[in-house]
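The aim of this short unit is practical: by the end, you should be able to scan a pair of folded records and say something sensible about each. We start with the first protein, listed as its amino acid sequence and then its structure tokens.
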Amino acid sequence: MKGYDFISVPQIAGLHHEAMKSYGVPSRIRDLALLKSAVAAAQSVYTESRGDLCEVAAAYAYYIVENQPFVSGNKCTALLTALTLLKINGRVWQLDEAAVADAINAIAEKRMDIAALAVILRTAVGPEPEPHYPERREFRRRHR
């Protein structure tokens, strides 16, 4: 897939594990197929719909929240995944933490969709960077 680096199932599982570890909660995947489905659905926003990076990040968050692939920490992992996707693709964000938490909760409560979350992310990130991002190599190295 040209254009963006995507986040794989093992990388999301690693993000989940680190997040749960910081809270002292066990990291457990409830259903691997649901996680794979969330990743495929998010990536199809780019490959099928030609969505921009913020739409893809929003889709990762949306489908992780919707599919609930983890025993606990789905909303936290959804947010971490979306923000990590932006970071490894060279985007810097300035988010209002309360607004983002409200947005993730709104997805869980079926009051927000991918497009609305993408708008929030778009307003929080800077312009598209040049196509070379050293953060990508570091992320791949740590999360293989």
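Turning to the second protein, read its sequence before its tokens, just as you did above.
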Amino acid sequence: MGINVIWQDENGVEKNRVNDPQNRLSLLVLATSLDEFICLRFLDPYGNTYFNQRQIPVLLFELKGVRSTITDSQFQSYYSDQTRQAKKAGWQDAVIKQLESRQGLSMAQPVRDHLDAVIELVKRSLDEVHTYIRFEGD
């Protein structure tokens, strides 16, 4: 499971969502250094992260900014590192082959497309009183 993005009210009632069944947002979080971002650095692929109305404009700005930096080479490098670590740890050949097969995939455009849907959801939540954006990790 990836990182689903949910727009919800103060009672936790969902207003809308963008699901991440193909782990696009998870891949972005894991393969990108987010330390320079005020909001994005707190995204947790394994937990929940909430943003309130005062944080949402900054979040939106950062999502747009990180979108413009997405490249295939960053994902290829990520999978190459994962493969190297898996080999070093003595993981099963099937897992290593699966990681190796991902190194040649073009992932930038599918991740950008998914991020576009997230950006649209976050835009719609702007200035909506007592609502929040929740990133729901695995």
